[in-house]
Amino acid sequence: xxxxxxxxxxxxxxxxxxxxxxxxxxxxxxxxxxxxxxxxxxxxxxxxxxxxxxxxxxxxxxxxxxxxxxxxxxxxxxxxxxxxxxxxxxxxxxxxxxxxxxxxxxxxxxxxxxxxxxxxxxxxxxxxxxxxxxxxxxxxxxxxxxxxxxxxxxxxxxxxxxxxxxxxxxxxxxxxxxxxxxxxxxxxxxxxxxxxxxxxxxxxxxxxxxxxxxxxxxxxxxxxxxxxxxxxxxx
Length: 235
Known about the structure:
CATH topology: Rossmann fold
Oligomer: single chain
Strand content: 15-25%
Number of strands: 7
């Protein structure tokens, strides 16, 4: 997919045009959010993640373009065999991760999503841009699907899930950042990078308290991109 004149798959016309279109569509998130609220005048149960995922099936909730390029750059540098993403949405961040994996020539992206509508749209997109072979989408509760998938030692995850996980992006429901990370910890390699998005949100505070406690085995730094990202290294 990458030619000598296009050293980054992000610059491949198929990928760049899809990303341009998706970022433009994401500008309509506020209107989509208002429609979702209108359909549920009594609000949502904050603990019912599937209910919210289904109700917000039109909302992109994307990373920024700068955050996407940061993720691409980190994956290119680390060259992980297994990239885990919690919270795919329509797949903007997934495209950046998958492009980096493609250009590295090694690795696989395993991403999670609860909205069936978003999964269908994202899979179509991945096929359209020619990155579907380096992405596996797990539908449902990530606390169940990720451990089950990794424990199965799937051969299509890099050189096998048995090699462990080298890169994690947390960008799903904020109250699940800590539970998802702890579920992944038995499979994290030493030196694995864990990236958490939207750290300026109050709901991410428990996660920051966790990864910033030296006793929990991470060293990291907050990176000032959009709503903030925490980049943590598993020690």
